[in-house]
Amino acid sequence: MDLHHLTATQALKLFVSRELSPVELLDACVRRTEQVESTVNALTEELLFDAYVAAREAERRYAGQGPSPRALEGLPLVLKEEQAIAGKTLEEGSLLLRGHLAEVTHPVVERVLAAGAVVHARSATPEFSCAPVTHSRLWGVTRNPWNPAMSPGGSSGGAAAALAAGETLLATGSDIGGSIRLPASFCGLVGFKPPFGRVPGLAPFNADTYCADGPLARSVGDAALLQNVLAGPHWADPVSLRPAYRIPVAPQAGDSVRVALCVSLGDYDVDPVVEANTRAAGDALRSKGVTVEEVTLPWTRQQISDAAWAHYGAVLGAAIGTVVGERAQDLMTYTVDFAERSAAAASYAEGLLAEATIYEPLGALLDSYDALLCPTVATTGFPADAGAQAPYDWGDALMTVPFNIAGRLPVLALPSGVAPNGIPTGVQLVGRPYDDATVFGLGTALEQALAMWTSPDWWPTP
């Protein structure tokens, strides 16, 4: 396998055995970036001076010179640009914020650096992270390495594209409506939306029950490795949970696990390829001894949309509205559309009542089953250049949003196959409130049974 397509857990073993140096691995990722970045356009900046300092420090630690290696010691990692670094730009894909400098550092950034990660680049997002494609006037179009005519998704699209293309070994993302899980699906990756409060954040979105920062990775074990670094209380975030929750790095599904399979989540119009691959994932879990039973949910897309827009109108839409002012002509069309839809949405109080109505049948389902299995997205991809138009006609395809409405549920997204257009499809494993370990155990079982993304020939070669 090429060095740039190692998993993080494989790389750590090679570091410990001294068969691979962190500097050699960073070199491989930098070379890969030089080969593919002109196609995928995933990164907003490279941080190579500091990255090589960190890689050389990791090399010394593995050689027994100085302190012991830390959890992510020597692993190349790309940060989502919206996760602020004090003194560096925080532009969020918008011409309105071009040149703006962050005053504080995001807890996610603090933690990956403290764990020894080699942070070598930052990744592109759509403007204000409010679209399911990654396209902005500031940074241009980010393309999917599996098929450059298609988008890697959004809003963590740059992170996912870089990871799938081999530019890095780990990446961070954030998720307010599917922004980790959608790119994970379209790029053939593992992504995790932690439950509310599991990973600390910055105001005001740390208090948003829809929003979570989390890992993008090449394997379930890699996702657990990074999630364990991110999770835990932080002095500046009063909603961050204590004590820190730790997932086994090699999680396993327990005996007598019962999973509910729901293909349509009510009335989503699911592509036949996505449906077939989702059912195959259910069969794969059965092959590992998991009981999988098909169920229905009484949801409608309109019901989910109305509840979500009431929430976005009160939080993200309101935040975007404060910066629009007289410069709407400098914004992406989807940003203006997002602000307008938010302004027209129901009240926050009405949205809370709608959220309770949506959660009730899901809560009852999870009282009988350990987890829910469903598609991540109903379609097989969005065109990369579609960000020039408001993309919310496609909101009906995002099967991630119900589990932001139910923000205290852990959700692990995994590949389920590849569509005829070359774009991967994906499934979600949705757990009971704060039961992260079960979805990771089921994810490991699915990973072993399908044996897709653990194969050296899984990754694209743009």
Keywords:
two-stranded antiparallel ribbon; 462 residues; 14 helices; alpha/beta
Structure description:
This protein is an alpha/beta fold and 462 residues long. Helix content is 36%, strand content 14%. Strands 1-3-2-6-8-7-12-13-11-9-10 form an eleven-stranded mixed beta sheet, with helices on both faces. The model has no long low-confidence stretch (mean pLDDT 95).
What is the gist of this entry?
The chain has helices at 8-16, 22-40, 48-62, 107-114, 157-165, 181-187, 220-230, 272-287, 301-314, 316-324, 333-343, 348-368, 402-405, 436-450; strands spanning 43-46, 76-80, 118-123, 135-136, 140-141, 170-175, 190-193, 212-217, 258-261, 291-294, 371-375, 411-418, 424-431. It is built from 14 helices and 13 strands.
Structural classification: alpha/beta
Q: Count of helical segments?
A: 14
* Main sheet: strands, sense, barrel: 11 strands, mixed
Q: Name the average pLDDT.
A: 95
- Spatial order of the strands forming the largest sheet: 1-3-2-6-8-7-12-13-11-9-10
Cα Rg: 20 Å
Strand content: 5-15%
Which sequence of SSEs, written as H and E, runs from N to C?
HHEHEHEEEHEHEEHEHEHHHHEHEEH
Instruction: Note the overall shape.
Output: globular
Low-confidence stretches: none
Q: What proportion of the residues is helical, as a percent range?
A: 25-40%
Q: What is the terminal separation in angstroms? A: 16 Å
Using DSSP, what is the number of strands?
A: 13
